[in-house]
Write a structure and sequence with these properties.
This is Fumarylpyruvate hydrolase. The chain is of the alpha+beta class. The chain contains five helices and 18 strands. A hairpin with a 3-residue loop joins strand 17 and strand 18.
Length: 227
């Protein structure tokens, strides 16, 4: 008999291409990790110390639909590479970091930009703009054993067939091994952790009825309808 005083919340997971599911523990998101995006957001693109914010595991949504959220009139798309860890630890070296990666996926970091902007002006956390329900549409996870470790290749987002965002993963200011190593200095990483690795320039608003198509070389396309 369980000693829990309320029903146990479900385990959050991402579908895996070919079958199965990857259980999710935490989500770390790096900010302004492509130089052109840093510039369009009004920041210096030079290589400063990376910074991270978090989404909640249950923000992940593989359904292919994105419900337009409340209390906003300016929701932006951000296409990102997801990195899923099979193991972790502290003070992981850059050279050893990729040994902890299980796989990769295409995802969107949907953002209530107006609420994020208000939080920035007031020096407050970003969660109200970033960590709302179903704010991380995600494609099935693909094992690194099949894709190899991704350090270059086109990353793109179309809205209603029009290219809005485009770049190459080699344009990341902080590469995947560096992100893993840096995070492990401040947190104890573990199996089930997810890293969302930043977005190229071209972020912009979506409206109900829009069709977003996010794609990354080697990982295919994630199609999401705004409802």
């Amino acid at each position: 008999m369980s000693s829990y005083v309320i029903p146990t919340p479900p385990i959050v997971s991402i579908p895996v291409a070919g079958g199965g599911a990857f259980p999710v523990r935490r989500i770390y998101c790096i900010g302004r990790n492509y130089a052109a995006h840093a510039i369009e957001m009004g920041h210096d693109p030079n290589r400063e110390s990376p910074f991270f914010f978090q989404k909640n595991p249950d923000n992940l949504d593989p359904s292919g639909e994105f419900p337009y959220p409340p209390h906003t009139s300016d929701v932006h798309h951000e296409v990102e590479l997801v990195v899923a860890l099979k193991s972790g630890g502290t003070n992981i070296s850059v050279d050893d970091a990729l040994e902890h990666v299980w796989g990769y996926a295409v995802a969107l970091d949907m953002t209530r930009r107006d609420l994020q902007g208000e939080a920035k002006k007031l020096g407050r956390p970003w969660e109200i703009g970033k960590a709302f329900e179903r704010s991380a549409p995600v494609a099935p996870l693909m094992p690194a054993s099949g894709t190899g470790h991704l350090d270059h290749g086109r990353i793109e987002l179309k809205v209603n067939g029009e290219v809005r965002q485009e770049g190459d993963m080699n344009q990341m200011i902080w590469k995947v091994p560096e992100m893993i190593s840096y995070l492990s200095e401040y947190f104890e990483l573990a199996a089930g952790d997810i890293i969302m690795s930043g977005t190229p320039s071209g972020v912009g608003p979506v409206s109900k009825g829009d069709v977003m198509e996010a794609s990354i070389d080697g990982l295919g396309t994630l199609k999401v309808v705004v409802v």
